[in-house]
Design a protein that fits this description.
By secondary structure, this protein is mainly α. The protein contains 15 helices and 5 strands. It folds into 2 domains: 49 residues, Ubiquitin-like (UB roll), CATH 3.10.20; 254 residues, Type II secretion system (T2SS), domain F (Receptor-associated Protein, Up-down Bundle), CATH 1.20.81.30.
Length: 402
């Protein structure tokens, strides 16, 4: 949804600046007028531009986590909503954060509920999960509890994501450094030796000929390779931008050897933590399942959750629906069934999330532990081939009788 930057005035003539997520400029004007503001200027900030940004760059999830934690703390201290938002507005470290908090405060003072104020900034930075949990907290009169559980959820998700990213950094650095070294040798070092060998006009060994041919091809036709790579990436982006293409790609990821199982466990953990947190906060099962389906990053798993939700509407259980989809791990299904039988569904779902997040960390560590020496070995073999090929050529030159 487009983002608009606006300037408006209140009844006292004071001007305000802010940002708003809306279908068009007219919707922005209508919302401002509804909140008793007089629009002065409304300009598009750019299609798909993130609301929750700093100087044009997107704010990380930890900023939303910090905002939620602070709001929960103020609520638990007994402060009313408008007072808590006023304090957060003063504490906001960045202009964009301050603009969003200011807009929330204006909406609340204008008579809107907190969930309605958050909905004006959907989907960024406030997701359907965030809004539905706040709405459930408002209806149950336990908004401070809902906010604390939201903060715990965001914190657990951030810790898990950081653990996965940290595990991937080292192999990625090794690959990039090794590839950079090989490209440097092939494009800068080898061509200089090629000139020397050409001037000597002597026969050189076959490995050296292969190496020189590859180096010459890279130097002369590197742009063809770049076009092919960029074309392939563009074609992939266009294909996965369609619902059918994205679904096919996500299914392929789940079927991929080694990493497919890890991806499924990641999605299972996300499904269990999101659903368990929402049920624990008082969100109805069907409403929670609808939100969970949208929260899945893998559309194949999201579609399975939607079908699962349809089964629950017809009177089925969550565990039987998970089993019918044939996608979720057996351990998760059994644990959810036990939770349904014992009436401890929310607690069991959070245990499922903890279990599979731990499994993902262990599997990632084991897989990357095997992948790292494999990458080093392959890079070593390539560099060794280059060195040996060049040494063979040098030795053959030294053997030539003068």
């Amino acid at each position: 949804m487009p983002v608009f930057v606006y300037k408006a005035a209140d009844r006292r003539g004071q001007t305000i600046d802010g940002v708003m997520d809306a279908p068009d400029a007219r919707a922005v004007v209508e919302r401002l007028q509804k909140d008793a503001y007089y629009p002065i200027k409304v300009t598009p900030h750019g299609e798909r531009a993130p609301l929750f940004s700093l100087g044009g760059s997107r704010v990380r999830q930890r900023d939303l986590l910090s905002l939620t934690q602070q709001l929960a703390t103020l609520f638990e201290a007994g402060l009313p909503l408008d007072r808590a938002l006023t304090i957060l507005e003063e504490l906001a470290p960045h202009p964009r954060v301050r603009a969003i908090v200011s807009d929330l405060l204006r909406s609340v003072r204008g008579g809107a509920s907190f969930s309605e104020a958050l909905a004006k900034h959907h989907p960024r930075p406030f997701s359907r999960l965030y809004i539905n949990m706040v709405r459930a907290g408002e209806k149950g009169g336990v908004l401070e509890v809902a906010l604390r559980r939201l903060a715990e959820f965001l914190e657990a998700r951030a810790a898990f994501n950081e653990a996965v990213i940290s595990a991937l950094i080292y192999p990625l650095v090794i690959t990039l450094v090794g590839a950079g070294a090989v490209v440097f040798l092939m494009t800068f070092v080898i061509p200089r030796f090629a000139t020397i060998f050409r001037d000597l006009n002597q026969a050189i060994p076959l490995p050296t000929q292969i190496l020189l041919a590859i180096s010459g091809t890279l130097q002369q036709y590197w742009w063809v390779g770049m076009i092919l790579v960029l074309g392939g990436v563009l074609a992939w982006r266009v294909w996965t931008a369609t619902p059918e293409g994205r679904l096919s790609w996500d299914r392929a990821i789940l079927k991929a050897p080694i990493f497919g199982g890890i991806a499924l466990h990641v999605e299972t953990a996300r499904f269990a933590r999101t659903l368990g947190t929402m049920l624990r906060s008082g969100v109805p099962v069907l409403g929670a399942l609808a939100v969970v389906g949208d929260m899945m990053s893998n559309t194949a798993v999201g579609a399975a959750v939607s079908r699962l939700s349809d089964g629950v509407k017809r009177g089925g259980t969550i565990a039987s629906g998970m089993q019918d989809q044939g996608m979720f791990p057996s351990l998760a299904i059994h644990m959810v069934r036990v939770g349904e039988e014992t009436g401890r569904m929310e607690e069991m779902l959070l245990k499922v999330a903890d279990t599979f997040e731990t499994d993902v960390r262990v599997e990632m560590k084991r897989t990357l532990g095997l992948l790292e020496p494999t990458i080093i070995l392959l890079m070593g073999v390539l560099v060794a081939f280059i060195v040996v090929a060049m040494l063979m050529a040098i030795f053959s030159i030294n053997e030539v009788a003068l």
